[in-house]
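so my prof wants the structure for this chain in the tokens format not the other one, which i didnt know existed until like an hour ago. anyway here's the sequence
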Amino acid sequence: MTDIVDFLERVTSAGTIEVVWGELTRVMGDYGFDRLLYGFTRFRTANSFGDPEDLLILTNHDRAYTDRFIGDRLYADAPMVRWAAENVGACSWRRIRENSEHLTPRERMVAEFNQRMGVTAGIAISFPATSPRAKGGLALTARADIDQDAADAIWERHGRLLLQMANVAHLKITTLPYRGLRRPLTERQREALEWVGDGKTTQDIATIMGLTPATVEKHLRLAREALDVETTAQAVLKASFQNQIFVVPQ
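here's what i got, hopefully its the right format
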């Protein structure tokens, strides 16, 4: 089994989301959960998880599954996603079978899709929210040879440890730059947004960066377009949420 101290050292010192994700999938695989799906948003609303383009989704499921579950947004009607949105902690997927009569038609359709795709046994984790707009969750799918009874037995024995390792990985991921932008910000765009965040005017920024005000405005406009927002204030907020600005270069 995984050396817990090694795991914690590698995760807490990681400089990229990819490194954290690699460690998390490896350790969960050691305990029989070989397919993971992680989702996180800081743009949640009362009725949705926000723009799908703003979601951070990590998975090692195959394309046949993710093209539909993620690409066609089936996750929005997944029973355990609904549970995760309303709760904190860990929950056996047994809950789906035990409460099947209470599923909506859309939830039943997603549950049947998962059954066909072999995503049948596992554990759902819902992380504590850091703000009303933020929410993160992790679905642990058990190996094909592990049924729900066996998955529950693994969780009964190791669940406290696995939950805390998942929490550490989640907290680390939320501190790292998320590069899921339609177009990545350039260094100049990041710098200009940081100066705006510091309260500098366009003229101030032009002087600091050794540019003309028109060039600064161009960098800010392109940053707004990359972040898909209308105002520079929104760009600063969104870039900050995604850890794109005010971060130490790796």
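also thought this was worth mentioning. The chain has a mean pLDDT of 92.
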